[in-house]
């Protein structure tokens, strides 16, 4: 069953077609990578799927409901309830500790629960770094805090934008291993990346080029 | 979580928050200083203005009517007098504490040794008075005419040994009659003759330079008017006149009961005059209009100046806060974009930013208040040579001003914050 359906979506900035009539289906529990060079429309696609932007044309159905015409306020609610976001630049609140950064997502979703937030950090192997500020954490650790924050509200969809773009090989391995774990647990993952190694571990890879869907590659060797 | 975020923002970004607190403290201190000075400046300027002489004259009612009818100097047709034994009552009126100084006068004409006739005014110089209230007071023209230039000798002092037998001579008369300090002057009237020691030569810069001033007793003895007074001059701290005071000055009977009470219980020059008339039998007390009006005008202008400085300082603080808060929000655009991305509503983020700023404003405001009180004391000591009284009314005014200024200063930042779109911030678009 499709969790996400993108139908003939275009995003136009003046004369520029950042996305040009793209259609895509993502099933619940699927792990999809979106690849493409710079300027191919990857980030635009992520913003539209992540309810941070609206398409100029076309429909975006999440859980069967069209969200392409929703108000900014409603999109904020959908983002909060259904989507977990992971960024290349981590984007942690620099004056809050690791556990507080996780609790912020709980706070805007429902009620903050420090115990649950600590468990999320434990899942990503950072229980002992919970009271540290982002400036006291390595890049890999910050990205893991970001993953814990994305997971804390049990979202239907995890959307990661270049999650390993700023990480060394060892930390990249840790993050991808966490994605495998999440996938095994049934979480739907959409990972935007330009790194073939990151794309290769997904079930399916969508390749964008100049705003159009140019190829779709199914990973025959996929295993969790 | 809200408070953890506020605490984190305040304590882990001390530099930024201290900067905002410092700006608010500066604005608050200026407002506090100016408001305290403004509220106290009335009394201070009033006190200063009292050094320029009396602002109320009291004369016998009968003479006043004759003056008005014939437009002549009352001295020439003096037929009624005020009573000396009632003088102390002036310090028993409702506004007794506003009576700074007063002095009685009795005028007569005396003949000098050389046969010339000159005016002699008997008055108090430094008179000790035991009031009916049990208080004591030293009052007289030494205070009321403190601009007199004593060219030689000293002020007459009736409390000094032999002081009551002295006389002060105007500079013009001294020059014309060849009188010097230390001389003995013989003055006579049809009621008697007195040998008076010239204790000082004064320069008053007016008609008084052609006459003599002696103690009250001497002049009364020479004019056979013991216990009688020609006039009383009073220096009182007054509130500038308004419409009510002007209406009352024309006819207190025209006021309603409420207006009458308000007028009577306000230190308008007209209400003080009215109260003096109530205690001095057969008297008419009238303001020296020129002095009273000048005092009112000076005070109005001084207060207006202070209000303008206060408003300008608050506007300056608002602009400073606005710049700092806007810069702070711009610096934190990534963080705000992130919070929006993970589901924070605009109202939640505005709430956090405003709470942070208002908490900082409270710290800055309290520090600014005490700093401002210090500034007010410096202004008080430098300008008036005395402390500025702490006015409780300033606290709520400064608190409300700081809240308004901080909110107004935060509006551009909040508007910018509401316009931020997470996609643009997080992807730098």
Keywords:
heterodimer, A: 224 residues, alpha/beta, Rossmann fold, six-stranded mixed beta sheet, four-stranded antiparallel beta sheet, 7 helices, globular, B: 429 residues, alpha+beta, 2 domains, ten-stranded mixed beta sheet, two-stranded antiparallel sheet, 14 helices, elongated
Question: Can you tell me about this structure?
Answer:
The complex is a heterodimer of chains A (224) and B (429). Chain A is of the alpha/beta class and 224 residues long. Chain A has helices at residues 42-49, 72-82, 98-109, 114-123, 139-151, 169-184, 196-200; strands at residues 2-13, 16-27, 31-35, 57-62, 65-66, 83-86, 157-161, 188-193, 204-209, 212-218. In chain A, helix 6 links the parallel strand 7 (157-161) and strand 8 (188-193). Chain B is α+β, with helices and mostly antiparallel strands and 429 residues long. Chain B has helices at 2-11, 14-50, 61-70, 141-144, 171-177, 216-223, 243-250, 257-264, 269-279, 289-331, 333-341, 346-384, 394-419, 422-426, and strands at 56-60, 82-83, 99-111, 117-123, 127-130, 136-139, 149-153, 166-170, 184-189, 192-203, 212-215, 228-229, 231-236, 283-287. The model of chain B has no long low-confidence stretch (mean pLDDT 83). In chain B, helix 1 packs across helix 12 (346-384). In chain B, strand 5 and strand 6 form a beta hairpin. Chain B has 14 helices and 14 strands. Chain B folds into two domains: 2-47 and 296-426, no CATH class; 55-287, no CATH class. Classes of the chains: A alpha/beta (224), B alpha+beta (429). Chains A and B meet through helix 2 and helix 3 of A and helix 1, helix 11 and helix 14 of B.
